[in-house]
Amino acid sequence: MTRTVYPVVPPKVEYRLTDLGLGLIKAFCGVWQWAEANFIAIEQARKDYAEKQNQ
Q1: Averaged pLDDT, 32-53
Q2: For range 5-10, the mean pLDDT
Q3: Residues 21, 24, 27, CA angle at the centre, nearest 5°?
Q4: CA distance 44 to 38
Q5: Is the pLDDT at 25 greater than 90, yes or no?
Q6: Contact at 8 Å (CB) between 1 and 21?
Q7: Which of 22, 21, 5, 2 is nearest to 13 (CA)?
Q8: What percent of the chain stands above pLDDT 90?
Q9: Residues 38 and 46 sit within 8 Å (Cβ to Cβ)
C-alpha cells in the first residue's frame, strides 16, 4: 500500500494498493465469491452450531 499525505487544511491522505496488493485481491476475490454463493448454507451451519451449544 502506498500512502500520500497532502499538506492542506483540512488534512488529506490517499491510500493506494501496490501491484503486490492488487495481486492479493485476486486471491481474496475467489473466497468472496465462494462465500456469497454459499451464504445460506453458512448461515444455517452457524444456526445449527449455536443451537447445539445451547442444549
Answers
A1: 95
A2: 96
A3: 165
A4: 10
A5: no
A6: yes
A7: 5
A8: 69
A9: no
Given a cut of 90, whether residue 26 has pLDDT beyond it is no
CA torsion sign for 20, 22, 23, 27 is positive
- CA nearest to 12, candidates 20, 3, 21: 3
| Terminal C-alpha separation, the chain | 47
The torsion angles phi and psi of 52, rounded to 5 degrees, stand at -65, -35
What is each CA distance from 15 to 4, 5, 22, 28, in whole angstroms? 6, 9, 13, 19
Q: Tell whether the torsion through CA atoms of 40, 45, 48 and 50 is positive or negative.
A: negative
pLDDT band per the 50, 70, 90 thresholds, residue 11: very high
